[in-house]
Design goal:
The chain is of the alpha/beta class. It has two domains: about 10-300, no CATH class; about 410-465, no CATH class. About 25% of the residues lie in helices and about 35% in strands. It is built from 13 helices and 24 strands. It has helices at about 10-15, 30-40, 45-60, 100-105, 110-115, 135-140, 145-155, 155-160, 170-180, 410-420, 425-435, 440, 445-460, and strands at about 120-125, 125-135, 145, 185-190, 200-205, 210, 215-220, 225-235, 240-245, 245-250, 255-265, 270, 275-280, 285-295, 295-300, 300-305, 310-320, 325-330, 330-335, 340-350, 355-365, 370-380, 385-395, 400-410. The strands form two sheets. Strands 3, 4, 6, 7, 9, 10, 12, 13, 15, 16, 18, 19, 21 and 23 form a 14-stranded mixed beta sheet that branches. Strands 2-1-5-8-11-14-17-20-22-24 form a ten-stranded mixed beta sheet. Helix 2 runs antiparallel to helix 3.
């Protein structure tokens, strides 16, 4: 079992808890705030310097002039840092405050941990409130901690990798992240260790006008294997919120990392997230993602195939409803010979919602014999809008690249056929949507697939029975 949405309604997912604690924290961005965050966390001097440098770069870098309109995002109205009045980094679920514990228990996180998970992290606002790892995996040398704790206890490793994969000059919101990041996950898998149980983290942004900026740093040494599952949600309050997290993954030689996430932010949220992996020789990164909720999403998990024979797989689902723009896709940069990438993107748009696939494949001139397959499929309901914007750069003639894209509405003939077999219209539509998403959902663990389907069903209420 992982996150369990099977009995939840939209009201459950969008309901917030008491947020009086947040009023103690000012809104807006300043150097004073950056110094407070660093001081509260008792960070080393080099991290404070990194934060201040990131703040400087944030002010220097312009907003992107492509993609969705984010001009209504007023950063002066965002609370960049807030902590609840609760025990942080509790090792036992019993030590978490009852109100916060209730939020996570609705998602069955403690139950999931007892069942099949190797470890769990739970973040509430700007801080991790719970983190655990089973003894059997800790004894094999695996490190799974709150990022802030890892900075204190594993500073040398953190300093070596932190924001080297996603540098703070990468784009404006990477710079913002580098200045105000708080909480997140640190995962280290030693050489030769293959995990047979997944790890999971869940991030909850609970108060109005909040920003969440968790940092996930994953390092998989050679000949190792791991799976990490991440979930995110936020209540709806009628004022803008911001999510600008960062995921950095380093995959060693002959290693495999699967990173799965479902981001279900509220319709108030701007989701400007950055995820990137660097993959060594014969290593493999697998991205599995579902993007729902949020007013605007700009998210393009990126793979840098740096070693010969490295591989990247991306499987993505985006659902856009009224007043939503899901701008998602995948980026692949190929730096070595004999690398391959497979990109499958599915989207559903309804009620004039906009779903855009935006991708980049960049094969460098010295990278021979690359194989890349791209498939983008869109299903449209009720004036839904879909765009496909692929950029493909093949630096040499040895590359083998295929790209397919399709967009269409549900066929009246297919609906009629299903209805003649005893299904009503809503049941028929639901069956068609499930078939449309089958390529992606069937790759997930059974429980996770059920939960993702439930979220899509909630998002599509009125279109799917």
């Amino acid at each position: 079992m992982t996150l369990d949405f099977s009995t939840l309604t939209k009201d459950d997912l969008e309901k917030g808890n008491n947020q009086d604690y947040a009023q103690k924290f000012d809104k807006g961005l300043s150097e004073k705030l950056i110094r407070k965050i660093s001081n509260d966390k008792k960070e080393p001097k080099w991290m404070l310097e990194h934060r201040l440098d990131s703040l400087k770069k944030f002010y220097e870098i312009k907003n992107p002039n492509w993609g969705p309109d984010i001009s209504n995002l007023d950063l002066e109205k965002i609370r960049f840092y807030a902590t609840a009045d609760t025990e942080q980094n509790a090792k036992s679920w019993d030590d978490v405050s009852p109100e916060i514990k209730e939020t996570f228990e609705k998602l069955k996180i403690p139950e999931a941990e007892r069942a099949v998970l190797a470890g769990v992290g739970a973040q509430y606002e700007s801080e991790m409130i719970y983190h655990s790892l089973k003894d059997e995996w800790a004894e094999k040398g695996i490190i799974f901690k709150d990022f802030d704790v890892a900075l204190q206890e594993n500073e040398e490793i953190v300093k070596k990798y932190f924001m080297k994969c996603v540098p703070n000059h990468d784009h404006k919101y990477a710079a913002l992240h580098g200045a105000v990041f708080s909480g997140g996950t640190f995962l280290y898998i030693p050489k030769g260790v293959e995990m047979t149980e997944p790890l999971q983290a869940y991030f909850r942004m609970n108060s109005a006008g909040m920003g969440q900026f968790e940092h996930t740093l994953i390092i998989i040494e050679d000949n190792a294997k791991a799976e990490y599952i991440e979930g995110c949600s936020a209540p709806k309050y009628g004022e803008n919120a911001l999510h600008a997290g960062c995921v950095e993954i380093y995959v060693g030689k002959n290693s495999t990392m699967r990173y799965s996430s479902v981001e279900n932010w509220s319709r108030d949220t701007y989701n400007l997230n950055t995820k990137r992996a660097i993959v060594s020789e014969k290593g493999k990164i697998e991205w599995v993602g579902g993007n729902l909720g949020s007013a605007v999403t700009m998210l393009y998990p990126a793979s840098v195939l740096a070693g010969r024979g490295a591989k990247s797989n991306y499987l993505g689902i985006a659902v856009a409803s009224k007043s939503q723009h899901q701008d998602t896709g995948s980026k692949v940069t190929i730096l070595a010979d004999d690398c391959s990438a497979n990109i499958i993107s599915k989207s559903i748009s309804k009620d004039s919602g906009i779903s855009t696939y935006r991708g980049l494949v960049d094969i460098k001139p010295h990278a021979k014999n690359a194989i890349v397959n791209i498939e983008c499929d869109a299903l449209l309901f009720d004036k839904g809008v879909s765009d496909t914007i692929p950029i493909i750069s093949a630096g040499n003639e040895s590359a083998n690249i295929t790209h397919e894209a399709s967009a269409g509405k549900i066929s009246e003939e297919v609906l009629f056929f299903l209805e003649t077999r005893g299904l009503n219209e809503e049941q028929a539509k639901g069956m068609i949507v499930n078939g449309f998403l089958d390529d992606i959902v069937k790759t997930l663990p059974l429980e996770y697939a059920v939960e993702l389907n439930k979220l899509i069903e909630l998002e599509m209420e009125g279109s799917i029975g």
